[in-house]
Structure formats: C-alpha cells, structure tokens
Amino acid sequence: MHHRASPEIFRRAKELRMKLTPSENILWERIRANRLNDLHFRRQHPVSKYILDFYCHQYRLGIELDGEIHNKIDQKARDVAREEDLKALGIHILRFKNSFVIQETDEVLKLILVEIENLNKSL
C-alpha cells in the first residue's frame, strides 16, 4: 500500500495532514469517514517517494488537487513523470484544480464516483 515509502515521506505526510489547503479541507470534509458511498479515503497518503492528496486503497485511486503552480511547464513535466511512476505501481490518478473543487464540489464528487464505477468495471 505504501510501496516502500521512506520514514521521511511518512513524516512529511503527517505534517501535510496538519495543514490542509482550503480545497483539500473542503474535499476531505465530504469524503472522510466513508461519507462517499462507503468508500474509505486516506489523506496525504505516502506512496513510494510521493504523497497523494487522497487515496482509496480499495480501488487504487489517488486524487490530486492542483494549485496554480501546476500550470507551470516544469511542474507539468514533473506531474506527468509522477503519474507514470504511480501508474507503474498500479495506481490510477484523478486530478482536479483547486478552484474547481471549491466552486463545484458536488461535480468533483460525481466525477470521483464515475471514475470508481469505471475502475470497478475493470476489476
């Protein structure tokens, strides 16, 4: 489940859990404690050398929330490489912009459920 995440990654994940961004906090309040169709999500979950914003182990689904920095060319390249690494570990990634999560939370939840339905069909 953690794919050999280092103690340092676990420490950083713990720090990040203590200071969620506004969009992370909004989404977490809606999906925590199995509030989204009885699905269990973890926040700031260590996987290998990465920390996923949210992770559902049952479907091997990571959810990443992107701020403005993710619009920069060099960050986009890092995001692509990160997704390829995670895909090689069997983890599927959904990405949402912070602004979309804040403005269209219900739509984000619907998209997550659609993705889970699609993943469920492929199992």
Automatic annotation (TrEMBL):
**Pfam families given for it?**
DUF559
Q: Name one GO molecular function term.
A: methyltransferase activity
Q: Name one GO biological process term.
A: methylation
Domain spans labelled DUF559: 11-116
Reading the lineage from the top rank, the first entry is Bacteria
Designated name of the protein: DNA (Cytosine-5-)-methyltransferase
Please report the organism this UniProt entry assigns to the protein.
Answer: Algoriphagus machipongonensis
